[in-house]
Fold:
Amino acid sequence: MNVEDLNRVVGSVLDLAKCSRGSSFLQAALKQHPRRSFEVIAAEMPPQVLVPLLADMNGAYVAMLLLQMMPLPQAITFVNHLAKQEELLLALCTKDLHSRRVVAFVMELVGAHNCQFLIDLVLKYPLKLVQSQHGCIIVQRILDAFSFDSKERFFNVIRSHFFDLAVDPFGSYIAHIGRPH
Structure:
């Protein structure tokens, strides 16, 4: 791959990112020609484009690589855009292994301490999250970042549904952490 190949895709980066071969091409470009590729690809990926791309099976890899290459303050700006999209965030937390990995990537990229939006999501939808395989895992990963008060609020809900959660294949993991002593 050379820079000319990259120049030919200007204007079609989003479409490329969403298909398997295009995503692979863009990832390779970012690794082989990081500076120029970042300029070309990032120019076509403002937050309102890049953030929804995180939910795309192929596009997420391009989006995550771009976020990794950004200075942390710029990446946090993109993550803050994600934080405002509750429906997308909830889907990323519960959909599948791929989307759960995207959420884990975001937590690692900006640090769990910068993920108050995930804590807020868990507090708003505790049962929906703990009763899904991937949501349960996300909850377990973010619990350490909870304040004492947030943990109490969360576990009060869990304890009030203890018997239902105790027999749930995924909720049981969280129910046993918060079980009454």
